[in-house]
Write a structure and sequence with these properties.
The protein has about 375 residues and is an alpha/beta fold. Helices cover about 40% and strands about 20% of the residues. The termini are far apart. The protein binds nicotinamide-adenine-dinucleotide and sulfoquinovose-uridine-C1,5'-diphosphate.
């Protein structure tokens, strides 16, 4: 298939582009490299050294003989987005290209607005360009499990059958997101659903859980293909942060009580889920939602797992319950459905001690790159 991977220089996008290329798809990465600029703004870095995008792609070609196209473009530039659809005529447009950090969106008013502008405007441009230039293209859009929040009922995959005062309907599942970033994903979902309804666009909204891990079969081929690995309190995510904290002998930073429960998945499953979505496109006019996670854990459970695996490698780390910089629920009900991707053939890589041990080993090898001052959170919700 002809597939565009927008956001293909990022943590999920880079291994996805490699995986799809390896599988024989014709892949073009679109990225404006803003994530690398944000590193400079925050004074942060990837724990793994990552090459400039052009060099990564050249290394991939040298190692495998496979070519990946690159376009350094911003999705908020409509002329650029139109040209991409007109010239490439992709069968699938995989859209990772958004600002994805909840704390980043909560820094101040300017960051909240920029987060909305970048994410909502970029997605609107993609929708208009599909309508005008590639109406059959399947939009595969990264949403987030955080759109739903933590309701006191089971979370369905996008839609819920409701009976109200004797009448029934199938309606979008209620959304109660926990940050301005998560809200941008809700706005995107509404805009995509509307475009499917009025223009007959085909779209799959992948409500992805928190992604952990680092390597895929493709990134393991050569150090020049290394994936980025965020550990700072703004872009680093829970399990990855705990592993890096263990590697540098830092207390594990559980926020508040630690009973907050979320859906998680291995990066190796992210890349496969994208391929599954591309190979099984939504129908024209269909707005389809898949909940993309494989297991649910509380933050306390993750910290305990990391503490144990670290101990196996001779490292003693404490679990610290620090003041929660966020406003979120504890001891809440959490049970989300995730059968759509499994039914289409996803075989999950579950969270085992071996998986954790591999990531911890890589983290220890790169420990000297970690800037300790970036580990504790400074952005608060209040
Ligand atoms: P990332 O920040 O590592 O990568 C995002 C990439 O998109 C970056 O390379 C960035 O430069 C690019 N980008 C951002 N805005 C752009 C624009 N306007 N035009 C062109 N390129 C732009 O993030 P990630 O972790 O790879 O996440 C990818 C997507 O998956 C995001 O949409 C995120 O919301 C979603 N997601 C991520 C996770 C996770 O745990 N990492 C979980 C659920 C959902
Ligand atoms: N947490 C800690 N300690 C830490 C970091 C996080 O206890 O050091 C807790 C948070 O309070 C939260 C949970 O871990 O309860 C998850 O936080 P996170 O930072 O790992 O993930 P989150 O902010 O939800 O965002 C990440 C990605 C985002 C994606 C989302 C999926 O950055 O792009 O949309 O995961 S989901 O959580 O399903 O919405």
């Amino acid at each position: 298939m002809k597939i565009v991977v927008a956001g293909g220089d990022g943590f999920c996008g880079w291994p996805t582009a490699l995986y799809l290329s390896q599988k024989g798809h014709e892949v073009t990465i679109v990225d404006n490299l803003v994530r690398r600029e944000i590193d400079e703004e925050l004074g942060s870095n990837s724990m793994t050294p990552i090459l400039p995008l052009e060099e990564r792609v050249a290394a991939w070609k040298e190692i495998t003989g496979l070519e990946i196209g690159v376009r350094i473009e911003d999705l908020t530039d409509y002329e650029a987005v139109s040209a991409i659809f007109q010239e490439l005529q992709p069968e699938a447009f995989v859209h990772f290209a958004e600002h994805r950090s909840a704390p980043y969106s909560m820094i101040d008013r300017e960051h909240a607005i920029e987060n909305h502008r970048n994410n909502v405007e970029g997605t609107l441009n993609v929708l208009w360009a599909i309508k005008d230039f590639a109406p059959d293209c399947h939009l595969v859009k990264l949403g987030t499990m955080g759109e739903y929040g933590q309701p006191n009922i089971d979370i369905e995959e996008g839609w819920i059958e409701i009976e109200h005062k004797g009448r029934k309907d199938r309606l979008p599942f209620p959304k109660q997101p926990g940050s301005f970033y998560h809200l941008t994903k809700v706005h995107d979902s509404d805009n995509i659903m509307f475009a499917c309804r009025i223009w007959g666009i085909r779209a799959t909204d992948l409500n992805q859980g928190v992604v952990y891990g680092l390597e895929t079969e493709e990134t393991r081929k050569d150090a020049r293909l290394a994936n980025r690995f965020d550990y700072d309190a703004v872009f680093g995510t829970a399990l990855n942060r705990f592993l890096i904290q263990a590697a540098i002998g830092h207390d594990l930073t559980v926020y508040g009580g630690g009973s907050q429960t979320r859906g998680y998945l291995n990066i190796q499953d992210t890349v496969r889920c994208i391929e599954i979505a591309c190979q099984n496109p939504a129908d024209r006019g269909e707005f389809r939602v898949f909940n993309q996670f494989t297991e649910q854990f509380s933050v306390n459970e993750l910290a305990e797992k990391v503490q144990k695996v670290a101990k196996d490698q001779g490292i003693d780390v404490e679990i610290a319950h620090i003041d929660n910089p966020r406003v979120e629920k504890y001891d809440h009900y959490y049970n989300a459905v995730n059968t759509n991707l499994l039914d289409l053939g996803l075989q999950p890589h579950l969270l085992t001690d071996e998986v954790l041990a591999e990531i911890l080993t890589v983290s220890r090898a790169n420990a000297e790159r970690v800037r300790r001052e970036l580990v504790l959170p400074t952005v608060t919700w209040k």
